[in-house]
């Protein structure tokens, strides 16, 4: 729950902290659903600093991204056609094909069952990265809790798939190293390495998106015309690259977790 709702964020801007006004979409959610969210948090004994606005901007943006993706998938589903596929279907098939090829190369021949998760993960991160370019909105991935949620979800998912494919004992052999007498040394190293992946995925995505957003805002405030367009283009490039890296690493972790020991 703390991944989605929380206190009103204090954002770092050019070396100091100040409180941002809530986004219009956040105010809308708080107006209609704030009471229910507050009651739920109180029932779970979660302290809320601002009872009048229990829904944060980052959660509101996540909800908006979810709704946009839901509409996108519904549009694709309603327009599915074998004889005359439309533009939306071509886009979906292109995304599925791109991630499928990546999964085939990185994960192996058993990649297909993981493609739906990877597609949804990639689209969520990409849209969340880019939505901040729209005036009045912000990128939820520029707040640490959102990349952390994506990282933890991916971490749990690939461990679950590893256990599901190899069994508990078979999966634990991945942590023991190539020879049995190295197991006492390799096991704690592997545990620490896997835990560090959550931090690595989180910091990489958050730091790049936060920095890109800050650079764009600074140049918009200094030079309102023309020059910021260049940095908006760079922001789009960073958003796409960070999405690709996150999904690629998810494929790598899935490939390692689901590989059979010989």
Count the strands?
2
> Main sheet?
2 strands, antiparallel
**What overall geometry do the principal axes of the alpha carbons give?**
globular
Specify the helix fraction band.
55-70%
Whole-number count of domains: 1
Distance between the termini: 41 Å
Percentage of β-strand residues? under 5%
Overview of the molecule:
- The chain is mainly alpha-helical.
- The chain has one domain.
- The protein has seven helices and two strands.
- The protein has helices at 24-43, 57-78, 87-106, 115-130, 145-172, 183-222, 227-258; strands spanning 10-13, 16-19.
- Strands 1-2 form a two-stranded antiparallel ribbon.
- Helix 2 packs across helix 4, helix 4 runs antiparallel to helix 7 and helix 5 (145-172) packs parallel to helix 7 (227-258).
- The radius of gyration is 21 Å and the shape is globular.
- The two termini are 41 Å apart.
- Mean pLDDT is 88; it is low at 1-19.
């Amino acid at each position: 729950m703390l991944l989605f709702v929380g206190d009103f964020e204090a954002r770092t801007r050019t070396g100091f902290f100040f409180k941002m006004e809530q986004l219009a979409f956040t105010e809308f959610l708080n107006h209609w659903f704030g009471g229910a969210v507050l009651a739920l948090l109180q029932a779970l004994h979660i302290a809320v600093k601002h009872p009048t606005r229990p829904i944060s901007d980052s959660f509101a943006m996540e909800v908006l991204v979810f709704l946009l993706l839901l509409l996108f998938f519904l549009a694709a589903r309603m327009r599915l056609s074998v004889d005359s596929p439309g533009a939306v279907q071509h886009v979906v098939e292109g995304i599925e094909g791109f991630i499928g090829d990546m999964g085939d190369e990185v994960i192996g021949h058993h990649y297909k069952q993981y493609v739906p998760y990877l597609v949804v993960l990639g689209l969520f991160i990409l849209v969340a990265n880019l939505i901040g370019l729209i005036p009045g909105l912000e990128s939820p991935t520029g707040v640490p809790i959102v990349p952390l949620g994506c990282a933890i979800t991916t971490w749990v998912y690939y461990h679950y798939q590893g256990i599901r494919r190899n069994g508990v004992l078979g999966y634990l052999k991945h942590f023991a190293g190539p020879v049995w007498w190295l197991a006492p040394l390799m096991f704690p190293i592997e545990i620490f390495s896997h835990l560090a992946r959550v931090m690595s995925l989180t910091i990489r995505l958050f730091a790049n998106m936060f920095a890109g957003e800050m650079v764009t805002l600074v140049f918009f405030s200094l030079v309102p015309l023309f020059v910021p367009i260049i940095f908006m283009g760079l922001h789009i490039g960073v958003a796409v690259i960070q999405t690709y890296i996150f999904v690629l690493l998810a494929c790598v972790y899935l490939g390692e977790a689901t590989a059979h020991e010989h």
